[in-house]
């Protein structure tokens, strides 16, 4: 029997401080561990960081994404972790991304400027669907550019 896939969307506030090099090392660590864990746990998704906040979409078997979300909530680098959506899905939107990281370049910033300007990229003012659509559009463009 095949497990039903689910999509989880959340945002959190960055609790990592330090100079750019220190911050970059923390992000690299988050991504490296997430990619290993997500591959093992059959989770796909994408992560966006901007203006002191993380927004993420996780897709996979429900017990696996719930366990990943629990790890995120326990991680001191994330604060004010807020679940925006948890829904069953028929197919993955991020099948090639164990953990895509998008939205950090100046080109990406322009791509989601309309959402950023309407919310100040305050994820608490965005719905799970808006964050999902934003990340999906960014990964489609990243894949096209690759």
CATH class: Alpha Beta
Q: What is the global morphology?
A: globular
Largest sheet: 5 strands, mixed
- Going by helix content, strand content and strand pairing, the class is alpha+beta
Label the CATH architecture.
2-Layer Sandwich
**CATH-derived topology:** Alpha-Beta Plaits
Number of domains: 1
Number of helices: 5
Question: What do you see in this structure?
Answer:
A five-stranded mixed sheet has the order 4-1-3-2-5, with helices on both faces. The longest helix is centred in the N-terminal third of the chain and has 21 residues, at 20-40. A hairpin with a 2-residue loop joins strand 2 (44-50) and strand 3. The chain is built from five helices and five strands. 45% of the residues lie in helices and 28% in strands. The chain has one domain (5-145): Alpha-Beta Plaits (2-Layer Sandwich). It has 146 residues and is of the alpha+beta class. Pfam families: BLUF. It comes from Fulvimarina uroteuthidis. InterPro entries: Acylphosphatase-like_dom_sf, BLUF_domain. Residues 5-100 form the BLUF domain. This is BLUF domain-containing protein.
Concise account of the structure shown:
By secondary structure, the chain is an alpha+beta fold. The protein is built from five helices and five strands, in the order βαββαββααα.
What is the strand and helix layout of this fold?
Layout: E1 5-14, H1 20-40, E2 44-50, E3 53-61, H2 62-74, E4 78-89, E5 100-102, H3 106-111, H4 113-119, H5 128-145
Parallel strand pairs: 2-5
Antiparallel strand pairs: 1-3, 1-4, 2-3
Pfam families: BLUF
Domain BLUF: 5-100
Protein name: BLUF domain-containing protein
